[in-house]
Specification:
The chain has 20 helices and 8 strands. The N terminus is likely disordered. With about 500 residues, it is of the alpha/beta class. Helices cover about 45% and strands about 5% of the residues. Its EC number is 2.7.11.1.
């Protein structure tokens, strides 16, 4: 993915590997017993991968896709019964076939139980494909940000931090210290519930890719200056991962560091943990995150130092990861493709005209449950002004005069006498129509704050995120919207 790695990207072969954070297997250490756990790197034929993925069928896509996502990941089933993830680059990527093959072989020589390992590649004609282990239990982003039944346990968060640091240390020891765009979508869970680092980020960037494709607020400062990734840049990204684990949210480092400076750790910690963590452990993770996020790269710790610090705070090491994660043990069923509604299809296509028609048809009926319904407000002069702004905005919205609609809806919101998620949704679409995706995302998120289970707010977030090139986050928002819409229709 020229963008953050897919949810479900990579797979796991049965291996009976140890999972203790203190005792890594021979596979981790490259010992003799570990060499045969996974097959050696293989050059697959295109025909084999075509069969495995049903001709790269759309139903087998398990990662981001669309015109802004140049690379797509498919799930595939090999003849030997093993599920794999097949990453297919677009035609303009890796023009030099020899460079692609050499790079893939170098990454494919790595074999660690802390990695979702690269098993092979295909380099026929203009085709450039990578074949990796399939991780059946989704991504850290799913378990941390988009959980359904319970938040990730503190003990499991500590384990994720350690396993990720161990993966980084292993890669450093093997001369592959550079990792592109480390984020919560790059951490996947195997059949045992153990976190693994995707191997895809170890590949040098192709001609059409970027080293960092997520929000620039999360990129290392030296990358902003030079456009180059260093091993210290990876440690910086690890620090942002620690913030994710601490907060259960994707907090920009600058905001988190402000909270740390004023010792407002309560605001930083995930409230869903409800105090179910050791203050000492939390303080240690905050300390490590702060060190990783130092502006000067030379002041950040190395991977070995991180591993040594994290080992000391591990808890319940005898409890299997799948128990801590709350999942069934064993090979999970590969994820099913998302069945989208008409609105979801429009979002995926970024069909703004169709969304305009949907919002116009829906009107304000979704505002009915908001505490300050429009029809029950007191008719003051200020209220009349506010309602006039709304009416003028609606007229402009109908006429597709989006600039005027933005101005009128802004006056409505600034009036402060009423709160309407629909107004934010409509202004969001106006921003999208005006190529102002960042502003659109802000409005969609504000609509969600007002109405936390409103599918339209998540649908619009997905479109804004797609427009910003944040395909993984967009897919998550789209899934959440689909789930909320289905829940509402069921009721």
């Amino acid at each position: 993915m020229g963008v953050p790695c897919s949810k479900f990207s990579l797979c796991c072969f049965n291996s009976n590997l140890k999972s203790s954070p203190h005792d890594l297997s021979d596979l981790e250490n490259g010992g003799e017993n570990g060499k045969n756990v996974l097959p050696s790197f293989t050059e697959f034929s295109l025909d084999v991968l075509m069969i495995a993925t049903d001709g790269f069928a759309a139903d087998n896509i398990v990662s981001e896709h669309g015109e802004k996502a140049p690379n797509v990941v498919y799930k595939g089933l090999l003849e030997n019964g093993h599920w794999v993830a097949v990453k297919r680059f677009n035609r303009s990527a890796w023009p030099d076939s020899r460079q692609f093959l050499d790079e893939a072989k170098a990454v494919g020589n790595l074999r660690s139980e802390r990695l979702a390992n690269l098993l092979g590649c295909c380099c026929e004609g203009e085709q450039r494909l990578l074949v990796a282990e399939f991780m059946p239990n989704e991504t850290l982003a799913k378990h941390l940000f988009h959980w359904d039944s319970q938040p990730m346990k503190w003990v499991m968060r500590l384990r994720v931090a350690l396993y990720l640091a161990q993966a980084m240390e292993y890669c450093c020891n093997k001369g592959r210290a550079i990792y592109h765009d480390l984020n919560a979508y790059r951490i996947l869970f195997d059949q045992d519930g153990n976190p693994r680092l995707s191997c895809f980020g170890l590949m040098k960037n192709s001609r059409d890719g970027k080293s960092y494709s997520t929000n620039l607020a999360f990129t290392p400062p030296e990358y902003m200056r030079t456009g180059r990734v260093t091993s210290e840049s990876v440690v910086y990204s690890f620090g942002t991962m620690l913030l994710d684990l601490l907060s259960g949210k994707h907090i920009p480092p600058s905001h988190a560091l402000d909270l740390i400076r004023v010792k407002n750790l309560t605001m930083l910690m995930d409230s869903c943990l409800e105090g179910d963590f050791s203050n000492d452990d939390g303080t240690e993770l905050v300390r490590l995150a702060t060190r990783c996020l130092q502006y000067e790269a030379r002041e950040r710790p190395n991977a070995k130092s991180l591993v040594n610090s994290l080992i000391t705070i591990q808890k319940e090491t005898e409890v299997p990861s799948h128990v801590l994660l709350g999942i069934r043990h064993g090979t999970a069923t590969p994820p099913q493709p998302l069945v989208l509604t008409t609105t979801g299809e429009a979002c995926l296509r970024r069909d703004l005209t169709a969304l305009h028609e949907i919002l116009q048809k829906t009107g304000y009926k979704d505002d009915e449950e908001i505490a300050n319904e429009l029809s029950f407000q007191m008719w003051t002069n200020q209220m009349q002004e506010t309602l006039n702004s709304k009416q003028q905005g609606d007229a402009a919205f109908r006429a597709k005069d989006f600039i005027t609609a933005i101005k009128c809806y802004t006056q409505f919101n600034d009036g402060g006498t009423m709160v309407s998620p629909t107004i934010y949704a409509r202004r969001c679409l106006c921003y999208l129509m005006s190529d102002m995706a960042q502003e659109a995302l802000g409005d969609a998120m504000q609509a969600q704050v007002i109405s936390s289970e409103w599918s339209t707010a998540f649908y619009l977030q997905s479109v804004a995120l797609f427009s910003l090139g944040m395909e993984n986050d967009a897919q998550e928002a789209l899934k959440e919207a689909t789930k909320l819409e289905a829940k509402k229709n069921k009721n």
